[in-house]
Amino acid sequence: MRTAYTSDQIRSAERALMARLPEGTLMGRAATGLAAVCAHLLAGSCGRVYGSRVTLLIGSGDNGGDALYAGARLARRGARVEAVLAGSRTHEGGLAALREAGGRAHPYDAARARELLARADLVMDGLVGIGGSGALREPYATLAELTGETGGLAVAVDVPSGVDASSGRVEGPAIRAHLTVTFGAYKAGLLVDPGASHAGAVELVDIGLGPFLPDPEVAALTADDVADLLPCPDAESDKYRRGVVGIAAGSDRYTGAAVLSVGGAVRTGAGMVRFASSAEPVRLVRARWPEAVTTVLDPSLVLKSSLDEVGRVQAWVLGPGLGTGPEAHAVARAVLSTGVPVLVDADGLTLVAKDRTLLRRAAPTVLTPHAGELSRLLGVPREHIEAGRLEHVRRAAAELGATVLLKGSTTLVAEEHRPVRVNTTGTPWLATGGTGDVLSGIAGALLAAGLTGYDAASCAAYVHGLAARTAAGGGVTGRGQAPIAALDVAQALPEALRTL
Fold first, then answer.
1. Whole-structure pTM over 0.85, yes or no?
2. Which residues are annotated as a binding site for K(+)?
3. Which residues sit in the known binding site for AMP?
């Protein structure tokens, strides 16, 4: 599992470690790792380190010192290293090391900085470290914008300047790095958008913080973690032991959501899928997924909060395409009054936002909103949620008493008193109608198989993203991916699961 921490947690661990080491040891370790990564990049992009052009953007903090010492190492290997000194002060030891190695340093001047950045093969961002918050001040903001115009590789030191290391917030111009070299441990803001989109690939340099780190604030499951959690049948399994999931979805107006959510559950390996809805979605589900056991709901029974006609299930999926009228509300109340885990998505979330009493239940509840739906649930503007995803998904889990999976460019899973889990799979091609319905079916199948809401949501997000990558193609790099439809994601689930 990949764990990530806030700035305060990192600084506390650094203080504890530095108290046991000779002065400068930690910076030396960081600079050595940073220089090694940059040398590898230069060898790949330029064919060599010798003769390459490296521009250092140096601020007042310790990461400016890291960059200067790393620049000195590159200069000793023959790189032409020049530093732009943009801070109110400069790390004296690092500056001396750079000059001694043959590097050059210049006080900030906009015209010279533009020239150095324009011709750089690699730009090293050492402006602001993990202590920075809020919008960049000048001249840092201008340097961040100029870096975006350069054709060279941009490498951020520890965290891209302008990105809040703890939350991923970006409140103005910020460095958009090809690669971030981070020290000691992952920072939470490097894994969560919008910060993650500025970090690029993230390379961790171990400087010995491990024994001094507390419990993480954020975690990301790896493929091995997911493989360990996923249910796998054995010789004693039957369809009931593997999990029976009920799906209340679709309507005469929104039939596709029914087909897609059932497909997600079937292809994830549910022992049985019981689907309940009005006549037209039932007809289409029968035609596309004959494995599903279907029930045309009797409105008079539903209005009495009775789902006895559906049969026994071990978890419910509620909401995709259900509608938001009185009959849909009755279905929601009936499902949420059961004593089994329930996943609420799409129209189900709209119903819950209008009537929070629906969430007064003892059994586990998983909510899967996107930012707009979470906006309605919390009464917070959507743009605030998108700017502070970690903050708001934590608040939602605590306030709503549920496991919350916040969909988006970074999918987050939150449960009170647990680290927020960040999903690392997926592709931008997932931004198409119906893929969330497939996700709800995947998670519902895992809930029915016995996973907790926290694990079911986390594994579902991972598998869903993996299936999307499989469907889009492009291999590990993602190059050459093609557009996908939601049904493609469902169809790719067996292959995605096979890789795990």
1. yes
2. 63, 125, 161
3. 407-411, 436
